[in-house]
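Postdoc handover notes: sequence design on the structure in folder B. Input tokens:
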């Protein structure tokens, strides 16, 4: 681990303490921090931004998309409470960084990227780096990946205006989803969605965030993120 990577991990720990009053987590699971250490962020950023690879901020990856800041990647990973046997769906592959972190902690990651060029570059990058438990699909993630459902966790890395029912349906009972909600390029909330054993849905606002928008479909009614719901 180089000094820049150590500084990144120290910053994540400091940010966790600073935001604990919002997130309820003063520190992240050590497994999550080990995964953040194991994945070399330099491998997932453009050469133009290689000097900023370990800074705690988002970076452009082309096509109007970004790689998320390390703290947010760690937070979202920690929130879904995954295990070594978990099967996880990610919406918004981007460079593949979040998928790589998840893959260090779970049995299988399925990830969907709507921009074909990013999907293909992420697929090649992850394969070259030896991530064998990640499957990348090119297409819209709004409807999830029904053929591989149900999932132990879903991580959405683009901001939606509402929680897609299709993703809720693909969660296992007792599973969690993290998803940013809000208007594009305006204030958004990172939401934690929990599906109880009997199928009831509980939503909780965790933290203010800023993500690129999730491309939506028109055929689903929104779930109100500010109320507990049973379905």
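Designed sequence:
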């Amino acid at each position: 681990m180089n000094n820049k990577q150590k500084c990144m991990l120290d910053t994540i720990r400091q940010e966790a303490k600073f935001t604990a009053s919002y997130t309820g987590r003063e520190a992240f699971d050590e497994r999550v921090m080990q995964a953040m250490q194991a994945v070399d962020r330099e491998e997932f950023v453009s050469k133009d931004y290689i000097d900023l690879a370990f800074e705690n901020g988002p970076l452009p990856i082309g096509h109007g998309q970004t790689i998320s800041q390390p703290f947010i990647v760690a937070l979202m990973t920690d929130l879904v409470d995954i295990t070594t046997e978990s099967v996880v769906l990610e919406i918004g592959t981007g460079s593949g960084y979040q998928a790589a972190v998840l893959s260090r902690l779970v049995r299988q990651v399925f990830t969907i990227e709507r921009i074909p060029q990013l999907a293909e570059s992420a697929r090649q990058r992850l394969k070259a780096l030896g991530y064998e438990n990640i499957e990348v699909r090119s297409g819209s993630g709004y409807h999830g990946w029904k053929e591989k459902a149900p999932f132990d966790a879903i991580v959405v890395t683009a901001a939606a205006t509402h929680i897609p029912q299709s993703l809720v349906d693909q969660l296992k009972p007792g599973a969690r989803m993290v998803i940013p909600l809000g208007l594009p390029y305006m204030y958004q909330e990172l939401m934690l969605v929990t599906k109880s054993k009997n199928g009831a849905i509980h939503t909780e606002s965790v933290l203010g965030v800023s993500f690129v928008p999730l491309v939506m479909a028109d055929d689903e009614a929104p779930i109100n993120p500010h109320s507990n719901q049973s379905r």
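Context for whoever picks this up: Confidence is low (pLDDT under 50) at residues 218-231. Don't rerun without checking with the PI first.
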